[in-house]
């Protein structure tokens, strides 16, 4: 059980790092808009390719459309 | 189509064939526009929509149409949006107010976008902007309708960005950061920081607490118990210092002003439990409650976070009258017309307002003759004729012909600014109804403190070693958590249910006022009526059938932008007319073969057809149609009542409300309309001041007044009423300054909101009864020493959960509908 003296401080260290990261993310504005992010994952990420035009347009109405 | 995140079901309910694929409005008869999207030809209602849809589809972004959850806004006619108007933003002095230049020469601009209807819009905007050469970052903030764009000024100009966004169908203007906005943003971040720390802290302390509790049951070596207690102390102290501090500062701030608030017992419970646990840790005796302290903090912060998020969500679509004015104006400088920023205009300058433009400042007409649409001020669908010497007001729209005007003053002196100030004034004057919970709370808090002190005193006589823990149990069990949640939980739940049915709730507190409302006041134009003209009567003067007359009229009107033309939008115009000309201030003229058709005012038509009789007596807006010298018909237009108005008024009367009609219109139409709808009390010809006086008069007699109005002209009286509704199209939410905004313009929502408000009041009463009843039972038991602090903490949490669950019932009924 003596390992507790090592493991608990390590756990606390990780927790401290997690808090630090989270606070950094909040301060850098990553949580400012909670409405958009929930939706963003569903959007097709069409690459801003140099010549998209008809190629991308022809591809997109494909398998994702269930109706 | 994706069915995720769809608060608006509008998309699915409209029939596909007849509505515009882009904006969802019905396609008018005779319009055959279409764009090939996703392999199919989609109908479009107007050239504006077609232009936007073509742009979206040609850039390969047409999956926008599959992702969106609400229709896009109908863009303005393409010819009215000239890219030239944006050139003014290339002026460095004007651009400086909303751009920053980074050290690498890149410029970041903050732009406010109008017309973002759902999250897919943000994707469309970001994708489109990212494809412009020179753009390194484009980020849309959906909460604030704001676009941050970073670009290289050598490759791209601001005016180009503006006109590109315009071409996508969004209204764009500079985002002016205000101190208030910054503060709201900063507070949200602070709250999130506190919440995050308390959540992580709760998990840590919770783990240690499980070990400690297990140790209590199975036995634990005192060195390990000491270790676990000390690390709990460490983490909990950090959480208390970082996250719970807000309770202490709020409680202290109010205490200094002599007010007892909910935060006081919260702060006391947290502070005492923490102190006692620290003491137990140091002396190695008694019990530690670090887990309760941290969990309590977390749940309180979580509740507040959600409540706040709901609250600011729709507040950010703030009312900014000045923002609706054009930034670029045409003014005469040294004998030439130049485009200058509006803010640089001085009194005495001469400005040019083209047909279709919004008047940028209050001005006196010096040249030209036209008509201005003032519905943003008075809701009237008919424009006012103006000529030399008349005054035109900022934010009205010039619809007929170009006008020159002498600027009367800056924005601050304008009638628009005065109106905005009176809105703010009304907001201040509004009688503040103390919330039930707040009234109870301050008594309750005082009582808790007395009972706790008494318990401590009595037990210190009987059993001094138990006195502290028993007093703490009293404090925890009576913690007004449930009481604090009772009202906001119900209000928030009711508000979110209402949003689901098309009512945007701006002031949740107004729900309480609405549930007690005794009077329901309606405005007429734009509220009981739908604010657009419709054909009410056709009096035929020649032996031409009615259909033929209306088709001729529609054929002429399709070339006009006058509000009258909307009445003919649904009639198939046929074809064959040529040379349709607009006679300013008079009417339309067109060639039909060798005949000349004229349509317009009595004077205009009589000049060419002297045999025209005066119009019939009914109070309609009459226009004449003549063919050469032969009068064909009188067409009477009317601003008709909304179809659901009568049913809504009957329902309101049945619910025990006194319904009144207050209208600025002095004609007999108000009386006629009121009689038709079953309203007995009518006041006509009222100025906004008289309407406000009427509301004050009712309030002075103890009445609780709910008012239904539309838009800007009613804003002052709406802000004075105890509860207010604004009826509006989804497009100008920012204008509607009321507690409840009926976004889909359906009056039925007035009565459904009323029902919801009453239901909400019942739930609040149940919640309060439960919270008080629970305390009435729990406190004596705790004071007698039957409840240990840990059981008190569980009881407290359970009673709060019950209150929340009861409040959620408000939301459930609506959803299953």
Task: Please describe what this structure looks like.
- The complex is a heterodimer of chains A (67) and B (817).
- Chain A is mainly alpha-helical.
- Chain A has a domain at 1-30.
- Chain A is built from 3 helices and no strands.
- The longest helix of chain A is centred in the N-terminal third of the chain and has 24 residues, at 4-27.
- Chain A is elongated.
- Chain B has 817 residues and is an alpha+beta fold.
- Among the domains of chain B are: 10-67, no CATH class; 81-177, 2-Layer Sandwich (Alpha-Beta Plaits), CATH 3.30.70.100; 322-422, Calcium-transporting ATPase, cytoplasmic transduction domain A (Distorted Sandwich); 531-641, Calcium-transporting ATPase, cytoplasmic domain N, CATH 3.40.1110.
- In chain B, 46% of the residues lie in helices and 19% in strands.
- Chain B is built from 26 helices and 29 strands.
- A 7-stranded mixed beta sheet of chain B has the order 17-29-28-27-18-25-26, with helices on both faces.
- The longest helix of chain B is centred in the N-terminal third of the chain and has 40 residues, at 179-218.
- The radius of gyration of chain B is 32 Å and the shape is elongated.
- Chains A and B meet through helix 1, helix 2 and helix 3 of A and helix 5, helix 7 and helix 8 of B.
Structure summarized in a few sentences:
The complex is a heterodimer of chains A (about 70) and B (about 800). Chain A has three helices and no strands.
Characterize the main sheet of chain B.
7 strands, mixed
- Could you name the CATH topology of the domain at 531-641 in chain B? Calcium-transporting ATPase, cytoplasmic domain N
From the spread of the alpha carbons, the general shape of chain B counts as: elongated
Helix content of chain B: 40-55%
| DSSP summary: helix tally of chain A | 3
**What would you call the shape of chain A?**
elongated
Estimated structural class of chain A:
mainly alpha
CATH homologous superfamily designation of the domain at 531-641 in chain B:
Calcium-transporting ATPase, cytoplasmic domain N
Task: Give the N-to-C terminal Cα separation of chain B.
Answer: 22 Å
Q: How large a portion of the residues of chain B is in β-strands, by DSSP E?
A: 15-25%
Query: What count of helical segments of chain B does DSSP give?
Result: 26
The CATH architecture of the domain at 531-641 in chain B would be 3-Layer(aba) Sandwich
Q: What are the low-pLDDT stretches of chain B, counting only 5+ consecutive residues below 50?
A: 1-16, 430-434
CATH class of the domain at 531-641 in chain B: Alpha Beta
Number of strands of chain B: 29
